[in-house]
Structure prediction request, 286 residues.
Amino acid sequence: MKLGVISFNTEYSIRADELAIAAEERGFESVWFPEHTHIPASRETPWPGNGVLPREYIHMSDPLVSAGAAAVVTKTIKIGTGICLVVEHEPLALAKAVATVDRLSDGRFLFGVGAGWNKEEMADHGVAFKDRWKVVEERIKAMKALWTEEAASFHGDYVNFDNAWSHPKPVQKPHPPIVLGTFGSKWGRQRVADYADEWMPIDVFHGDLQADIDDLNQRLEANGRAPNSVPISMFDIFETSEDDLKKFADMCCIERAIPRCPTEDKDTVLRWLDRYAEIGQRIGAV
Prediction:
């Protein structure tokens, strides 16, 4: 198991390029940037974390621009979106942006994707909450066509275009890994089995992680895919102990754990990175 790091990537915390450099220097395997294009001020949808919405949700920078900035100042660390809200992007433009970042990083990009939880936010992008996962699936399938075919077309309920050239093509073949982020639901695991390359479960929403992994493997087999063939990234882990990280490391298919760094100034984040790197060294994760 390797250690990644996620930053809420605000204008008052460490910059994306600076974080990527520091994480690479300390041996972290990956760095991840989340997304909310905006938060509607009506605040009708409750935050899944309960309580008052943390202010950093309102201040996130663009994850793909940040990923591009991180790519050009690093050499080895993987760079991911954690997660890109696919329902908030037009797929022709998103396919080009993802392929561009993959080329800027020489094939180090991890395309973390999901649907989101904020009904008003996605409604502002013209997507109804009830349709969100259908939209995600169609847009991902359409982007796969754009990345892998010289002239691609797609016709569905939510995405429609005739033969089109789309360049650049990604460095990674057939395309960057589709890392699907979900809460702890059977429907999320089914979507992973249906069209994702990796699974990114959000740590706090899992009561029995091993049971969830076993369920995913059953769904993979039902789809003709090998069990234990989907790498798992434990996402958005809050402050945790060395023993907790060892627990993840000892479980099958958990490829990385991704703790959240503080949404604080650069010096605070660097001290946090130093501490987590020391833990990672002791358990062989960095």
